[in-house]
Design brief:
5-stranded antiparallel β-sheet, 32 strands, Methylamine Dehydrogenase, Chain H, mainly beta
Length: 496
């Protein structure tokens, strides 16, 4: 990347910027490249798992979460602030069935990327700002979906170097989170795993360069993780770099990648896909990656993400595995050749599409994403091998630029997405449900926000994401569980 390309990239990419970014005149080449890398990672998903020590832990463990914890608790109609041993009545609050929760705890976080449910308990992960170009991991939890606690705020595993927690699941010793991190303020990020027994303290797994990359010639990130019958499976990408004759670090290629672990602590990099060359400033690191993975019937693993076609365009991609070690790319489409450009909804995999998340339910696999960043995209498969692109133009997605996450309900599916980008901001989160993955209804909209994940607990639905009003601020919303085969609830009246 030459200097003009570098400056253009800085000028045109959404920054998820620090509250007080450095003026352009102060950028050095090294700091600018680090910032581009950070922004690329930020352009970024969840499943209950078998019995773990976390499930067996008494529900009152949060009482001992530590003096640094602050939580808003909704009791009756009053909102109480609990910080250390001090308790104060803050204000009265009334809520509709869909509500933003934990607002005071999350106000210093930039984004919450993902959540997992352990019974009725929710855990969310994301990041906030340390130094202007380094991030801290954020872990939050709630016993009831309404009252939220920030955990491990000063834990060195989440604060040293750079920490970007992209996904979390129940598994291993209790919880397993994956993302990207490095050990110092100057290093480049590489795939990173954290584990915790209960969420209150975290440990970074031993970072073998052969498995996770060395942060120099091999960098990368993990974007999804699932606890499966084969073990914990994580997916993401590996980025290869070199140094040119002038001593400047130069990106070379990007490869989708998968990892597997029996316990969340010891990992093996099991697979890398065909690499795509860094040949354009328009190609960001997470464009080429496995983004999400889920286990279906008979132990079948399905991962979704994005690669490049022969013309250098993004193209939605599905991979399957029967053991987590060996992966195959899926090409089958019931509605047209793989690369034939015809009307949306009539072919499953076309250039300009990306898959961001996948879920499995009674009616099969459902994947969600976008086309050209401006139109929602949904795919359905009964078996993981043959996929149908759902026609979203005639359903509830006319103003949605991207569907960011999908989860299975007791009978059906739920997906969340955001309106297309307008002047760098997403206008609203949209919640849609389906009984079969084929027909969808919009049930709710949340204005002034964007979505990153959705999870279904024992008693509610929760959405992770953030709001955009000059800067990104983390947010979580919860709503009622319901049967998608029943008539959808009436959305709340717009505020005056």
């Amino acid at each position: 990347m030459n200097d003009s390309q570098m400056l253009e990239t800085l000028a045109t990419t959404d920054a998820y910027a620090p509250h007080e970014p450095l003026p352009a005149s102060t950028w050095t080449r090294d700091t600018a490249l680090a910032e581009i890398e950070r922004r690329a990672i930020m352009q970024t998903e969840k499943r209950p798992a078998p019995q773990t020590p976390l499930r067996r832990r008494a529900s009152g463990w949060l009482v001992a979460a530590g003096a640094a914890i602050a939580v808003f608790v909704l009791i009756g109609g009053s909102l109480w602030l609990v910080s250390g041993t001090r308790t104060d009545v803050v204000e009265e609050q009334t809520v509709d069935p869909w509500q933003r929760v934990g607002e005071s705890v999350m106000e210093h976080a930039v984004g919450m990327f993902d959540m997992t449910a352990v019974g009725s308990r929710l855990f969310a992960v994301g990041f906030d700002w340390g130094r202007w170009d380094r991030e801290n991991g954020v872990v939050m939890t709630s016993e009831n979906g309404v009252s939220w606690v920030r955990l491990a705020e000063d834990d060195p595993a989440l604060t040293l170097g750079a920490v970007l927690m992209h996904a979390v699941t129940e598994g291993g010793p209790g919880l397993v989170a994956v993302g990207a991190g490095c050990e110092t303020a100057e290093c480049a990020v590489h795939p990173t795993v954290w584990t915790s027994v209960d969420g209150t303290s975290w440990t970074r797994t031993p970072e073998d360069p052969a498995i996770f990359g060395d942060g120099t010639t091999q960098r990368g990130a993990m974007y999804g993780v699932a606890d499966t019958s084969h073990g914990l499976v994580a997916v993401g990408s590996i980025w290869y770099w070199t140094v040119d004759d002038e001593g400047i670090e130069v990106p070379v290629s990007i490869h989708p990648a998968a990892w597997i672990s029996d316990d969340g602590i010891t990992w093996e990099r099991t697979w890398e896909g065909t690499g795509s060359v860094f040949d354009s400033v328009d190609i960001f690191y997470d464009d080429i990656a496995m983004r999400s993975v889920v286990e279906g019937p008979d132990g079948l693993l399905v991962a979704v993400g994005t690669t490049l076609d022969e013309n250098g365009e993004d193209i939605a991609t599905v991979w399957t595995s029967i053991d987590g070690h060996h992966w195959e790319r899926v090409w089958k489409s019931v509605n047209g050749p793989q690369r034939e450009r015809i009307e949306p909804g009539t072919t499953a995999f076309i250039p300009g599409t990306e898959m961001l998340d996948v879920a499995w339910g009674e009616r099969g696999f459902v994947a969600v994403g976008s086309e050209d960043g401006t139109d929602a995209a949904i795919w359905q498969s009964p078996d993981g091998a043959t996929w149908t692109r759902i026609d979203t133009a005639t359903q509830s997605f006319d103003d949605i630029g991207s569907l960011d996450s999908v989860a299975a309900l007791d009978a059906g599916y739920i997906t969340v997405g955001s309106r297309a980008w307008i002047n760098g901001n997403r206008g609203a989160v949209t919640v849609c449900t389906s009984p079969d993955g084929l027909t969808w209804d919009r049930i709710h909209s949340i204005t002034g926000a964007y979505a990153s994940g959705v999870v279904v607990s024992d008693d509610r639905i929760a959405i992770s994401g953030g709001t955009r009003d000059g800067r990104s601020v983390a947010a979580v919303w919860t709503g009622p569980r319901f049967d998608p085969e029943a008539p959808p609830p009436e959305p709340p009246m717009p505020e005056n």
